[in-house]
Amino acid sequence: MENEWVYTEKLKEHFMHPKNVLSDDDKTSYDGRGIVGNMKCGDQMLMAIKVDKAKGTIADCKWKTYGCASAIASTSILSEMVKGMKLEDAYKVSPKDVVKQLGGLPEHKIHCSVLGDKALRAAINDYYAKSGMSDKIKTEEARIICQCMNVTDHEIENAVLEGARTYLELQEHTKLGTVCGQCKPEAEKLLAEYIKKHFA
Amino acid sequence: MLTKKFFKHPKKVVKYLPMKQIYLDNNATTPLHPEVKKALTQAFDIFGNPSSMHSFGREARKHVEAARESVAKFIGAHSDEIIFVGSGSEANNTVLSLFSCCSTRCGHPLKCSADIVTSKIEHPCILESSKCVADRGVHVRYLNVDKYGKIDVEELTKMLVSGGIGLVSIMTANNEIGTIQDIQALAKMAHENGALFHTDAVQAVGKMPVDVKDLDVDFLTISAHKIYGPKGIGALYVKKGVPFCPLIRGGHQEKGRRAGTENTLGIIGFGKAVEMRAVEMSEEHQRFLELKTILKKGVENTVPDIKFNGHPVDSLASTLNVSFAGSEGEAILLYLDLEGIAVSTGSACASGSLDPSHVILATGVDAEYAHGSIRFSMGRETKKEDIEYVLAKLPAVIQKIRGMSTAYVRGKHGK
């Protein structure tokens, strides 16, 4: 068909011919495995890595994804990006880097690309934990912003990725600030920060 | 459109065969009926304003009224009871907003004083305007449905008996899963308890017999582009004597019930579309049932771990909705699209929202099935070969997606 596709050509290529899919018959023992996301949200990603211990790099990277075209393609392209990469550099890969490689994603699809790097970090953490390097694991601890409704900064970030742009939309997504309302200034500050981080 | 490419070389001509294109998304919209196309082409030069008194205006008026007559006749209404509007969504918005109008100008007696009852599986144009209506002070209550998408009649009875309900709005046939409600019985219940009844019949009119007098509804919504007519034109049936308040004001068009110069061309196309439906509808019903059975059996036999959505019997003959475990709907849609097959999905990702289809969720389907729902909706041009082509391509698509999925373990899901 000659009419333009829904997403970029690069995305289409990775969607049509996904690279490095972890096969069910794959008997390799991987050095690290990470799985993030859940069925309920319709997105789940698994990353499995082989580490070149001498060089401290990712020798091989395989994945599985339950998700849409953007999710499949972004995991596929991420697996290509990180092969041969130093672990500490792979640790820093951001959703923005993945989106850039894909040649862009529509705004409402950005959240489909954020699980890949999380799964990758989970896989690296798994490797660190198994090889006695637990000191290298950076935990991404959530901080509670809204005490009444128990809403964390991570949830605010997710709400932004899922489309919240105003305080009211943030409230609709998270129920934050619907009791005492004390957290409003901090929540608004974080809202602006996350919009800048992912969409600027 | 078929894409034919010829690359001419001095010695040889290489012909690239056009890619097969199969359209199974007729609940989203339909192609124009050839007769509608013809009627539209012939009507291009009818430019007069139907409100004008001169010959140009009278010419346009004549066509508008003829079409109104056709639409009215098709649903058993009087032509005075048909208001042409811009879309089914506009018709639905009009009905809901008239119950939250607090203006003293229209003189209808409802004035935010009565509650509205609707269901959890209505089209977003009902559900979203319900939210606005609620913001204006009208209490809106939502009926649950069973696993097939049928309204919980007991719940409706309870609500009606509790009193204070001014309007019940329930769709005739669901756009996603095809489930058909017993509108006649539901309208009777509403009337017995002093409430008016509206039905969004956009997916029903032209696909099954719909007669406003038999159903005894007060408002009924129709759209032209779902039945091989043009886009941007719909109609609202308003029973004679029922209170009304226009959504769009400032003109005497449609007897002051919908301002704005009439969409003459759209209305002419709409009229032709219902005329053609009157001729073709009944005979195609059996054909759709047969095709649906072939599709259903075929999917069942070739793809494990699936679930059909919607009512097994009381459902649109042309609609089949099926969920594939461990496969995300947008991915299925786009792989099928690459094979030339056009369908739609209730997955969250395809809509850009957070949740999968509210209709599928309301039927109580598990999340993993809800994200993997695909709707096949046939139309008058759908052939047996098309269904066979789908059955030839679909199993491999699902297998490919499941092969990459973290959420699929064969046999784990059961049927």
Cα(first) to Cα(last) distance of chain A is: 33 Å
Sheet with the most strands, sense and barrel status of chain B: 7 strands, mixed
The CATH homologous superfamily of the largest domain in chain B corresponds to Type I PLP-dependent aspartate aminotransferase-like (Major domain)
The most extensive interface, with participating residues per chain, is: A-B, 34 and 27 residues
Measured between the Cα atoms of the first and last residue of chain B, the distance is: 38 Å
How would you spell out the order of helices and strands of chain B? EEEHHEHEHEHEHEHEEHHEEHEEHHHEH
β-strand number of chain A? 5
Flag low-confidence runs of chain B.
1-10
Rough outline of chain B:
globular
Task: Return the CATH architecture of the largest domain in chain A.
Answer: Alpha-Beta Complex
Separate helix tally of chain B: 14
CATH fold type of the largest domain in chain A: Sufe protein. Chain: A
Structural account:
The complex is a heterodimer of chains A (200) and B (415). Chain A is of the alpha+beta class. Chain A folds into 2 domains: 9-136, Sufe protein. Chain: A; 144-199, Arc Repressor Mutant, subunit A (Orthogonal Bundle), CATH 1.10.10. In chain A, 42% of the residues lie in helices and 16% in strands. Chain A has a 3-stranded antiparallel β-sheet with strand order 1-2-3. A two-stranded antiparallel sheet of chain A has the order 4-5. In chain A, a hairpin with a 4-residue loop joins strand 1 (32-38) and strand 2 (43-52). In chain A, helix 6 packs across helix 7 (167-174). The radius of gyration of chain A is 18 Å and the shape is globular. The mean pLDDT of chain A is 89. The longest helix of chain B has 39 residues, at 264-302. In chain B, the strands form 4 sheets. In chain B, strands 4-10-9-8-7-5-6 form a 7-stranded mixed β-sheet, sandwiched between helices. Chain B has helices at 34-43, 55-74, 88-98, 124-135, 153-162, 183-192, 212-215, 253-256, 264-302, 329-338, 348-351, 358-362, 367-370, 384-404; strands at 5-8, 13-16, 22-23, 82-85, 115-119, 140-143, 165-169, 196-200, 219-223, 234-238, 306-309, 319-324, 341-342, 344-345, 373-377. Chain B is an alpha/beta fold and 415 residues long. In chain B, 40% of the residues lie in helices and 15% in strands. The relative contact order of chain B is 0.15. Chain B folds into 2 domains: 34-276, Aspartate Aminotransferase, domain 2 (3-Layer(aba) Sandwich); 281-404, Aspartate Aminotransferase, domain 1 (Alpha-Beta Complex). Chain A binds chain B through residues 1-2, 6, 15-16, 18, 21, 23-24, 35, 39-46, 64-72, 106, 108-109, 112, 162-163, 173, and chain B through 3, 19, 326, 328-331, 334, 338, 340, 347-350, 352-354, 356, 367-368, 371, 403-408.
